[in-house]
Amino acid sequence: MSTLQNPLSPDDSATIPQPAGHRALRVAIIGNPNTGKTTLFNALTGLRQRVGNFAGVTVERVEGGFKGPDGRRVTVLDLPGSYSLSAGSPDEQVALEVLLGRDADRWRPDVVLVVVDAAHLERNLFLASQVIELGVPVVIALNQFDVAEAEGLRIDVPELIHEMGVPIVPTVAKRGEGLEPLKKALIIAAELPAPSRQFAIPEPAQGGLSPLEACLVADGLSATAARMEALRLLGMQRVGPHLDRVPGLAEAIQTASDELRSVGFVPTRLESEVRYAWIAQVIERTVSRARPADSNVSDRIDRFALHRVWGPLIFLVLMVVVFQAVFSWATPLMDGIEAVIASAGRAVGTVLPEGDLRSLIVDGVFAGVGSVLVFLPQIAILFAFIGVLEHSGYMARAAFLMDRIMRRVGLHGKSFIPMLSGYACAVPGIMATRTIEDPKDRLATIMVVPLMSCSARLPVYTLLIGAFVPATSIVPGLTLQGATMLIMYLLGTVVALAVAAIFKRTLLKGPVRPMILELPPYRLPSLKSLGVSVVQRCQLFLQRAGTVILALSIVLWAMATYPKATIDTSLPMAAQQEQQLEHSVLGRIGHGIEPLVRPLGYDWKIGVSIAASFAAREVFVSTMGTIYGVGTENEQALTERLRSEQNAVTGQRAYTPLIAIGLMVFYVFALMCISTIAVTVREAGGGRIGWQWAGLQFAYMLVLAWGSAWLVYAGGTALGFGG
Amino acid sequence: METRVNAQLIAVVVIVASALFFVARRVWRAITAARKPKSGCGSDCDCH
Fold it and tell me: Which residues pair with A139 in a beta bridge?
């Protein structure tokens, strides 16, 4: 830690300027992907943005704040990770627009905080050198300084400050080290003159660039920013839409390119050549290696994790462990929650007088929401495992292993991260496609992300597997239940790849681009950030159960209770309940849609539960809870009710293992989420085009779901598995 | 007895109407979120 408090950064003796006014200081954080930007953002602001040990976790701007050492409010904006300001993908475009003050909100930063990975200075300084030329005060956080030291790197920070011309503060964001000097540096930097380019362009090339720079200055850029922008534009394959409007720009770029070629330079390579040449000199003067670079732990692990044979095998074993644990470890906790909810329901039932209000609370709220809440332990276990894989750096290896398959189906390797996010929820998954540069690759990924089994499907799978799949051991440590769950998740993934291949060969035909993937070093996951991500997931689940699921359970209870039927009291209680359900709005709707689900082997109760779950998938479970909770006196668990339920028409078991599998397959493929449809509309371009893509997505997934469930039921019955 | 039944009925109507209003509002907000521009989230999906 001693290194972090040395001279390099504003120390305690540094004078902090008094605030000029009451306006908050605006700081934008930018850096290469996976340098710990979001960890630093969280440490500075006390917020809990999602972090992960792989590139592309942040895809949009996120705002937070803290009180500076001078008492001034500091607003911090976390921008998506970017290797340069070339703005090839939508998320990089977001970063550039903000830094140039061109974004929709005109949020121009007073200081830019560039987060640099101290262990990979050479690559990280490229972006830093671009940002320094934007004409805005800059502070560099030399993050993961401990990792650099552990790797034997010695960074002469005062010399680096001299070379870069901006304040530099070493930090270890995950442990909160270096934060106070960093805060001071941000306040001080705001009062310093804006930095400028620290290297010179070769004279003949500068002659060719000057007219282009003049054109950009005429458009309103500062002279410093125009110098950076001119180099950047020459290096890009196409000019951004915001610059199409600049009169004469295209001609100026063309003229500069011709001029550069005539003096022996390649215009598209000029920026990278001159910047990297300067960076190499800076590194030579400021970084030394205490011991020669040797094969580190990450490399040794990767010999197995990325091996052609061992790699996929390790991946498969990890997945088996995850899904088996979801079943084995969660059961005692689920039983506990179930008992608590049942006794709470009983207690409320005894307090309230007989009547509709009691039925609403006990059969609607407790039976409906309670049947979903019991799955909280499984959500926690699943996301704890995903968190460990993400934070340890293994997910980037999984992306590497998947790249070969991705390329074969025609998708870009970057599509893996959005698809992975889809396991949690399709909405952030679809938003994560912003890291993909090619619009066709991006759209193909958007179209298949909802096929990845999200956490809302987990209660449906668990309910049906728990009720109909025996816990028979297949191999030591793996039961049939765990294997079935794994198969459901794999089914969604495999079909997503197949559908993507179809899109990429038809509507979204285009070339396959290679992926450059950075493999982060393996790290021991921090218990704190792991805990935060699991708690956040659980909070979201509880929030959903307490809002959407609660409201829908109440509405469904009303639909199952009204209008009241004239009950024949001579009938047994179960028949009376059936009579009321048949007469209710829910019963009538259920019978109305029964012909649509009959070929799948479902009765009207399953049909109506599926229809209700188009609002949110978990509602299938709560509707089942409400339907089977309506008027019931006994506290039988939902799984037992499903096992013993009989079809009123045929007199046979309403649920067989075959029907349960067909139902799970239906849920793997069906798009039952209004939020996903809304985000697809927006991310696919909005307006009519967006709605068309969202409509196509909904339709193909519904056809796939119905067709597959029918195949399972009809095929299984024909093969004699119907009973 | 009849007063108690009426009070229960009123409570049920209020609770069910509130739930219906909540669900309708969620659907409406999801649809309007689809119209918003891409920068920023703008979604109220509770998922991220």
Answer: A113
A395/A561 Cα distance (integer angstroms): 48
When the pLDDT of each residue in chain A is averaged and rounded to a whole number, the result is 84
For B46, the closest of A61, A424, A544 (CB atoms) is A544
Strands A111-117 and A138-143: parallel
For the cut 60, the answer to whether the pLDDT of residue A8 exceeds it is: no
Query: Which ipTM was obtained for this model?
Result: 0.80
Range of the domain at B13: 1-34
User: Any idea what the CATH number is for the domain that residue A82 is in?
Assistant: 3.40.50.300
Mean pLDDT in residue range B26-41: 66
For an interface test with B, give the residue of A360, A421, A452, A536 to mutate (most B CBs within 10 A): A360
* Pair A184, A255 in one domain: no
The verdict on residue A654 lying in a domain is no
The answer to whether the beta carbons of residues A212 and A35 sit under 8 Å apart is no
Domain co-membership, A31 together with A177: yes
Residue B28 domain-assigned (yes or no): yes
In this prediction, residue A1 carries a pLDDT of 37
Domain check: are A130 and A244 in the same one?
no
Residue A396 near residue A53 (C-beta atoms within 8 A): yes
For residue A563, is the peptide bond before it cis, meaning its omega torsion is within 30 degrees of 0? yes
**From residue A199, how far is each of A127, A231, A277, A282, A390 by CA, in Å?**
15, 13, 10, 10, 39
Give the one of A90, A355, A544 whose C-beta lies nearest to B8's C-beta.
Answer: A355
Cα separation of A489 and A117, whole Å? 35
Q: Does residue B13 form part of some domain?
A: yes
Residues A21 and A88 reside in one and the same domain = yes
Q: Please give the pLDDT value at position A504.
A: 92
Is the domain of A210 the same as that of A99? no
**Residue bearing tokens 């937070």:** A64
On whether the CB atoms of residues A100 and A130 are closer than 8 A, the answer is no
Domain enclosing residue A257, as ranges: 203-267
Residue B17 in contact with partner chain A when CB distance is under 8 A: no
- pTM summary value: 0.71
Q: Has residue B23 been placed in a domain?
A: yes
How far is the CA of B34 from the CAs of A320, A425, B27, B29, B38, in angstroms?
37, 17, 11, 9, 9
Number of domains in chain A: 2
Residue found under tokens 């349960």: A660
| pLDDT band at A619; cut points 50, 70, 90 | confident
Q: Is A686 left (phi over 0), alpha (psi -120 to 50) or beta?
A: left
